[in-house]
């Protein structure tokens, strides 16, 4: 079979940080490895307004566009970039990651070019931004006009169907490379460097922010630390608006062992995961965090809120723990009980990795997306 020509649109792409950038790059790389041609069109704040820079990264042709001061001007330039490439290269399909703005542009440009389109709903687009009057029209257009919509969680799929009456809405979860993330002996040098020589290590990976339960996590840790010798390791840094919450907590609790580590490349994350006795994910709402799958692939026991994709992957007491969202005491109690039972943590960690190998490998994600591409490009309708 001849490979497809696919254009990805995303609001972020590496070296941008965050789950959206990581997921877009992973899917682009998987398609290239499967023999398809992939172009990525993405705004980049590192470029002057309107400037376009093309690079080839892991076989993916990345077209970065310097954003304008006003969003509608950025969208105009972005559309014209995609449309120009589409006329030149005759894309078979455009795939937008995140409903607004990338999904909107993917659906619009595909209709303009006579190509097919897929919009991937990731989490914050429907959990929060759909309530923003400035974003909602873009999101609704993307959901209505795309030839197919994918959702990384079952709950997001339900939300799509609640917003628009359509077929072709498919659950396609994220994946993780279990050859990159796996259990290994803790790095003693790193542990000493971070000042974690004694006590339990509780970990959080990703941007620590309000929707991830930052305030709840810090308050729960303060209570846990009164019962056991423990450290809290935050990997991935803070968004500026959440910095004040963290610094205020530090000033009020100077005795606690808090360790904030800025962004760590994926290739180095494994050493941090394997230092952690527990990974805590008390999200208020969430999609399917890459950090969840990475931690489980490393055989870490995860204590997570019963929301979004966390609920899809974790079976409470079987391969991790689920707690009610926004319940500080439940987080404290489950953390303490899990720390007290090393054998249970070991069994749950092994079951967690088995879950990843069974259901969340890159090959699963690639196959799910290609199945949709095949059906659309064959002229078939999706159920």
Would you mind describing this structure in some detail?
The protein is of the alpha/beta class. The chain has 2 domains: 5-175 and 361-377, Glycogen Phosphorylase B (Rossmann fold); 188-359, Rossmann fold, CATH 3.40.50. It has 15 helices and 14 strands. It has helices at 19-33, 71-89, 99-113, 124-127, 136-145, 154-163, 188-193, 214-224, 240-252, 266-273, 290-297, 308-313, 328-339, 342-359, 362-377, and strands spanning 5-10, 37-43, 52-57, 60-65, 93-97, 116-121, 148-151, 169-171, 200-205, 230-235, 257-261, 278-281, 302-305, 321-323. The strands form 2 sheets. An 8-stranded mixed beta sheet has the order 3-4-2-1-5-6-7-8, sandwiched between helices. The chain has a 6-stranded parallel beta sheet with strand order 11-10-9-12-13-14, sandwiched between helices. The longest helix is centred in the N-terminal third of the chain and has 19 residues, at 71-89. The two termini are 24 Å apart. The model has no long low-confidence stretch (mean pLDDT 96).
